[in-house]
Amino acid sequence: MAKKKSTTTARLSPAKIRADEARYVMNTYRRPPVVFTHGRGCRLYDSQGREYLDFLAGIAVNALGHAHPRIVRAIRREAGRATHVSNLFHNPYQARLARKLAEWSGLDRVFFANSGAEAIEGALKLARAHAHGKTSASGAPKTRILALENSFHGRTMGALSITHTQKYREPFAPLIPGVEFVRFNDVTDLEAKFDDTVCALVVEPIQGEGGIVPLSEAFWQRARALATQYDAALIADEIQSGLGRTGRKFAYQRFGSLPDVVTIAKPLAAGLPLGAFLASERFASALTPGLHGSTFGGGPLVCAVALEFLTVVEEEDLLANVRARGAELRGGIEKLAARHEFIREVRGEGLILGIDLVIEGAPFVKEALRRSLLINCTHDHILRLLPPFIISSRDVAEFLKRFEAVLKRAAKSAAAASSQGAQAAAHAQPILRAAAR
Length: 437
Ligand SMILES: Cc1ncc(COP(=O)(O)O)c(C=O)c1O
Hints:
With 437 residues, the protein is an alpha/beta fold. The protein folds into two domains: 16-68 and 317-419, Aspartate Aminotransferase, domain 1, CATH 3.90.1150; 69-315, 3-Layer(aba) Sandwich (Aspartate Aminotransferase, domain 2). Helices cover 41% and strands 17% of the residues. It has helices at residues 14-24, 57-60, 69-79, 94-105, 116-131, 157-161, 166-169, 187-193, 217-229, 281-284, 300-315, 318-339, 362-370, 393-436; strands at residues 36-40, 43-46, 51-54, 109-113, 144-148, 179-182, 198-203, 206-207, 213-214, 233-237, 261-264, 275-279, 343-349, 352-357, 373-374, 376-378, 382-385. The strands form four sheets. A seven-stranded mixed sheet has the order 4-12-11-10-7-5-6, with helices on both faces. It has a four-stranded mixed sheet with strand order 1-2-3-15. Strand 13 and strand 14 form a beta hairpin. The relative contact order is 0.14. The structure holds pyridoxal-5'-phosphate. The site of pyridoxal-5'-phosphate has 14 residues, from helix 5.
């Protein structure tokens, strides 16, 4: 008798996949019709076998690209041993990974969670635990949390409470009380809002979803000084910018002083879900057995894979590659920017780059996909590039060639649409004037 194909391996038509998704999956994402089935390096392949150049890396996750042989080997090896034993017991990899992360970051201890938002939740709890029972000079509780305008920290209730974008927050109110937003890079506003009632200040050293906007040196140094003065936690959210993406292990390392707490996730386990928060002993000691926990966080499989990821970054000197390819990519985009006046600014560092447009970005993302290029757009008009750390000079050259064609084509359509709009507006004027009379 012929073997029946398992439902997970049977080939489904893209149309059937989209139909099931429309019917059964909660309607939270707007996706293009393409179905990706597999990848290799910085290439992804769809169900029709078409190849795409992936300059998004699963939103900064696949730093080693797809199906990296050493990651595949580590997953295979550990899947055949123990994927999960729970945090009630030791496993061979968690402490080794924590030690490496402590070495990378300059901090002392690590707590493992499953995602970025969960790492943020833990970091906020740690700051509150450190301040627990303390009061300000005037007797007020030390519970206020400061975050920055234009920030993004995730979708759980705590992470949302420190995320600035109104459209993400508003439908879920009331959020956690006691959060105030400081104007981005505004030292005067920071000084006005910081006092001894603050237990934490959360910053992204480079705002990711906010449009690849770097925090200024002056703001960081003042934040560091105020946090120390008032015994509050300076929390650096490096979920998007950390673990090598800027060409440094952490983006904050350009400032020369340490945060108290760092959150990480995205590339940590090379595509498997793993997040963590790291802290100096001074703050980490606030957590004692039973105060915080996670069923899945830090299991043997994900920790073994994360160790392999960090080891590959070190052994293959990928930080140098990030810096070199980042410079090539940025240089190439700046040349294109000089020829296209709708590009306002190119920002970022290493392989986290934003191309700020004066026009809407969505048509560029669509045109890029049509030309088998994966990028995305944040804040409606900022194109974002987050390619894998392993890209070569040839990949960069290929990207730039295709991207130039994307710019030309999408700009032409945008110009046609706006001239149609202008014609329609001109046509509408007498009608509107008549209607107004
Ligand atoms: C800076 C930053 N913090 C937190 C998060 C939330 O991470 P996750 O989606 O893994 O919960 C993200 C996700 O994009 C992020 O970029």
